[in-house]
Amino acid sequence: MFGAFRPTNVNLSGLLWKTPWKLSVTRKANARSRLKKVDAVIEAVRASGVECSALERALELPKEHEMPARDKYTIFSPHAKGYRKGIHKVPKWTRLTLRTNPKGF
Fold it and tell me: CB of 55 within 8 A of CB of 42?
């Protein structure tokens, strides 16, 4: 029961999503490249002369090179120890804008 071949959650109940506790070097690089691509799109829309409220909100966000590593790879979570959790723990984190956090965190 407590040996090397004890049953895991996968063996007991089926599929279990396993998320690593920290981002790998490759996933960090991909996250940075996504941030840079979004910055490029925002800049292209701004240069085209289009004016809209969504663009104004997007221009207020920090650019990838202005963000500290802490904000690139973690987000505020009131439930996590230290009030931060890895960005990859957020559902659909590759599609969300997670560039801003509360002041002081």
Answer: yes
